[in-house]
Structures are given as C-alpha cells and as structure tokens.
Amino acid sequence: MRGSGGTPELVTLRDPAGERLAAGWPWFLPDGKRFLFLSWSADGNQLQVGSLDSSEASPGGPVDSRVEYAPPGFLVFVQEGTLMARPWDAGSLRWTGEAIPIAERAGWFHPTGSATFSTSGNGVLVFGSGQRATRLVWVDRSGQETGALGDPGQFESPRLSPDGRKVALLRVDPRVGTTDLWVVDRERDTTVRLTSDPGAEFRPVWSPDGRRLVFSADWTAVPNLHVQALDGSPASELLPPTGTVQVPTDWSADGRFILYMIRDPQTQYDLWILPLSGERKPVPFLRTPAREIDARASADGRWVAYVSDESGREEVYVSPLASAGERWRVSSAGGNLPRWRWDGRELFYRSADGHLMAAPVRGGADFEAGAPVALFRVASTPWTDFDVTPDGQAFLTESGGGTGSLPLTVVIHFTAGLAR
Length: 420
Hints:
Number of helices: 1
C-alpha cells in the first residue's frame, strides 16, 4: 500500500528463473525503491533484493535471519546465533568486507528467519541477548502453582498424552535456532529427545493410544505432516509436501482421523481432515476467506472446537464434525487455544485479555454452551500455549503468565565502532 494511503496491492516476487519466491521481512534501502527481503526454500534462507519497479528479485546469498540495512553501509543479521554486521554497498548490491560479530546468543528462530534486533537510520541498534527462558508449571483452577515440569528452558507447545502421564513439547536449540521434539514421563521423571534433525518440528499431537506423535516438520520442504513412534523407530511422512504449510491440531479419540491446518495463499489458514483408513484422502472441514485454526475434536468425535477470525477478531466456535456449516460461538469477548475436558462437559480457552476461561458445554446429539467463567490469568503472547489434564482440574502453562522477557541492549552510533 502506498504511503499516502489507498488499496493494498499484492506483490509477487520471482527469482531470475521466473519461480515464485516465498518472501518475508522486507526492509527498504535508502533510495526508497529497492528493498531487502528474506526468501525461504528447501535449500535454506536466502537474502534477496527486490524493487518496486519489477517482480524479479536479485539473490544476495544465504543468511540465517532477516536482514536490515544500516547507514553508511552495513547489513545486520544473525548468523549461527551471533548478531553480525557486514559491510555492503547499496549501489552495487555487493558485500565489501567480512562479517563483524556484535553479540553472541542473539534471539532468533531459523525456520522463519525472525531475529530480535532493530536498527535506526541514525546509528542506534537495539537487540535481545540470550533466549526467552520459560518454566513450565502445574496450576490448579484457582491459578495457584502446584508444581513444576523439569528445568527452565525455552519450550513450546506442551501437549499432555491422553492418559495424562506424559508431556510432549518442543525445545528450542539456541545454537541453531530450531526446535526439537522431547517427551517427559511425569511418573518416572525422565526426559527423552525424539528428534535431532537439522530442521525444525512444530505442534506435536498425541495418538489416542499414547504411542505415537504426529507433528509438522520442515526437513525436506515447506512444513508437512510426519509421525514418530515413542519406541525410537524413524519418523515417517504422513502426508507428502504440497507446497503449503501443514500443521496438525488433533488426533481423534477413536483414531479415525487427524485434524490439521493448511496455510492457503488465497484463504489464509483452513481446516482439513485426514482419514486414517480407506483411501486416506484429505477432505476440507472449513475453507473460507476467514482464518480458521486450532481445531480440537470432542472425545465422542461429534463436535469440533476451533478458532476463526470471521467476526474481525479471533473467537472460539464449535461445529458438528459432520457439518461445519452449523456453528455456535463459545467465547464472549475474543478467544483462542480451545481445549476440551475429556468428558465433554467443559471447553477451556484463552481470552483476548489473557485469562484462562472455562465454558460449561453439553454435547451428545445437540450442543449447548453456557456463559464462560474466568479461572485465572495466563499469558496472551503468541508463543504461549497451555494444556489441561483429562479431568479438567490442572493446567500446564508457563510460570508467571509466561512473560519470559529478554534483556535488551541499546548501542548508540554502533556503526562508528564497526568502521574502526
């Protein structure tokens, strides 16, 4: 969209061979027409230079993270966990020197290229050092902490097994900026690492027998579905790559199907069903112009709770598995991350203002939802997740609301020191 306002225009960027680029993190160069951006592919992250006058981009070489230009002539980025600045000429679009380290243990995430730093045109640099450490704790319905799960670290997507005895989670490796899949046995107090691939894993989901996990991984292409047994056997591809992101959200209690999300360029995120018998042909559950995510099936398999932004903000809805066209809104003032109690009598979710909510519901042949009640405050940051025990009496979440803030360092005239 133009700086003076107007209608947004979709920008399609292509490489010199005419192939469309998966692009993000744009940063304008001083002339106001050319811009840096990051492209993603199975070959890794690449620096690219685009222009408002052309759809063809010029490759600038492999990089780990997004890139910013800092006058008088440096590109700032994260490489293998270190914040770097490398001399670069904005006229010829060429490197003019070797990279100079600024700080180690910079906050970053390789699959998306995100990095915790920002520069200004007058030589100010701010960056986050270290990683966002969190502590997973057990909390009762009043919000009181009753225990911790393991040692502090950088965790994501904790998921309780159907019997509540194990927890699958993702642990971030700060050295390479990717995630690996781990399983914690609550009764034996042991932790087992299931994956160690150079790529990243996302969103683990338990099988109903607690012996396998389905998850998304970017090992060979855009993230697609894989399944891994807890016995240590190799993971296998559950769905082949389609060029669009696939993310699992639930495995039905009877084992008949898996719910998952697809990121469609035309319709944002959609919800799909993968049958696990017969032809195993995926079928859409919800595919609309709105963004539908985080589908969870009730234990009896009749109902699906999910999040949609069709109203203009995220809300929690419930639809029959057999007919997604019929739906009930459960959240009253914004909500996401729906979680069923095992007996189907409550639906938990996180409200827009950061409270964990409990809504009384009745399933069976007909669905009814009562007024949601706030239990306690949790984090409302995008990376914070939670899960609930089968009886709905305890929750696994991050300590202190999951703030996990990073210390920030501000450097004035940082390029002057680099020039010396």
